[in-house]
Amino acid sequence: MAMTCIVIDDEPHAIEELKELIAGVPYLELLETFPDAKQAIVYLQQKSHVDLIFSDINMTVLNGIDAAIVLNNYCHFLVYVTAYRDYALEAFGAKAAGYLLKPVSFVAFNENMRDLHQQFQHLVKRQKDEQNFLFIKGGQKCSYIKISYNDIIYIEAMLNYIMIHTVNGHEITYMGLKAMEEKLYGKDIFFRVNKSIIISVNFLERVDGFIARLANGKNYQVGEKYKGVFLEFLKKHTLRS
Predict the structure, then answer these.
(1) What is the mean pLDDT of residues 92-111?
(2) Domain presence at residue 45
(3) Is the dihedral of CA 131, 53, 6, 114 positive or negative?
(4) Domain boundary among 78, 103, 130
(5) What's the whole-model pTM score?
(6) What's the pLDDT score for residue 130?
(7) CATH number at residue 198
(8) Residues 73-90: what's their mean pLDDT?
(9) Pairing of strands 144-148, 133-137
(10) 125 lies in the same domain as 169
(11) Host domain of residue 119
């Protein structure tokens, strides 16, 4: 997974040198460059977040150390690129993830980026793991049940309730199927196949016509309203010669 980045430096030749270094690393994606930190902050306030910021320190409008308190709010990693060794303690005190001295060698740059990319991959994985479950209200007051998305086989509408069938059994909670569908929005493994059923494609064993056959032996007819989206999904994931 690529890391998005921006460059802040008041020297055009320094920006060009960094652009060349960034272009040599396949997992870096340069979004924009800026001649000063104030312009970068305006951009970040609109963009909201980038993965990595490269910043000079000794700049006339706003130096990189002073800008760090704001820049760190908009990135995972802040890396200083400077011609001066004297700022190292201040830089790491400002939570810098790297301190590269100009002129930056590709070896030093690549080593720093490799370390940060490993940290970034762990961070992304941890975020995904943290978002891989939901809680539903249980039958008793202040009772909550944790369910992993990967354990859900299908979800069944029952008037004003839903029954969530999982590899460990089933749970019933007071909630409409439409509300549950909205909760699952963005989770590509779930499909609503008719007015009463949402299935997990993790447990979809085969499709005959428009009958979805699940690994637990349950079969569900895909409703007319849902056939188009379901067919597009099948086409997208069908192996072609």
Answers:
(1) 95
(2) yes
(3) negative
(4) 130
(5) 0.58
(6) 58
(7) 2.40.50.1020
(8) 94
(9) antiparallel
(10) no
(11) 3-130
The residue from 94, 113, 130 where one domain ends is 130
Q: Which of 25, 16, 34 is nearest to 112 (CA)?
A: 25
The yes-or-no verdict on residue 84 having pLDDT over 80 is yes
Query: 148 and 63, same structural domain?
Result: no
Q: What is the 3-state secondary structure (H, E, C) of the chain?
A: CCEEEEEECCCHHHHHHHHHHHHCCCCEEEEEEECCHHHHHHHHHHHCCCCEEEECCCCCCCCHHHHHHHHHHHCCEEEEEECCCCCHHHHHHCCCCEEEECCCCHHHHHHHHHHHHHHHHHHHHHHHHHCCEEEEECCCCCCEEEEEHHHEEEEEEECCEEEEEECCEEEEEECCHHHHHHHCCCCCCEEECCCCEEEEHHHEEEEECCEEEECCCCEEECCHHHHHHHHHHHHHCCCCC
**Residue 72 covered by a domain:** yes
Question: Residue 241's pLDDT is what?
Answer: 59
